[in-house]
C-alpha cells in the first residue's frame, strides 16, 4: 500500500475543533459513523487491551442526552449560581449535533497502568478526529465536569469510566490556520 504523505500531512494539519453552533442540520449516516468508529478501533493499544468503548447518541438519543446534561447542571448548581443561558447552552450542544459519542475507557489494572489505557483511548479519539476531518465533518472532544454522573447515566460497569463526549456534525465553519509555536522550540537533540 502506498500512502500519500501530502494527504496525510494535510489531514493532520487541518484538524480543528469545530463546535455545535457551526453545525448544520444534515444527518450523519449510521454507515459513516460505523466507519469513523472502525478507524478508532485501529488505535495503538498496549497488551491489546483495546480499552475504548463508545456509546453513540443520535436522533431521539440526543434529546435524552441533552435532558440529562441540562438537569445535571441544574441539580449541581446552587440557585444563586444557576444561569438559564448556561442551562440552555448545555442542552443545545447535544441538540445541534448530528451525533454525540460518549468516550468510555475500560481499565485492566492487572495488565497495564490506567494512564496507558487513557493514552490508547486518546489515540482512538485522534483517529476519530482525523477521519471526520478527511470527511469534511466537524467535531470536538469535551470533558464536562459531570463525568461521574455520565458514567451512571451510561450504566457503565465498575471497570469502565466515561472520559468525555465527542460532539460531531456537518458544518459551515470557515477553515482557519492552526496556531502552533514552532516545533524547534519544543525539541531537545542528543546526538553525542
Automatic annotation (TrEMBL):
InterPro entries found in the cross-reference section: NAD(P)H_nitroreductase, Nitroreductase, Nitroreductase-like, YdjA-like
A Pfam family annotated for this UniProt entry: Nitroreductase
Keywords, ordered alphabetically: Flavoprotein, FMN, NAD, NADP, Oxidoreductase
GO molecular function, one term: oxidoreductase activity
Cofactor requirements of the protein: FMN
Family as reported in the entry's similarity comment: Belongs to the nitroreductase family.
Protein name as annotated: Putative NAD(P)H nitroreductase
Species in which this protein is naturally found: Siphonobacter curvatus
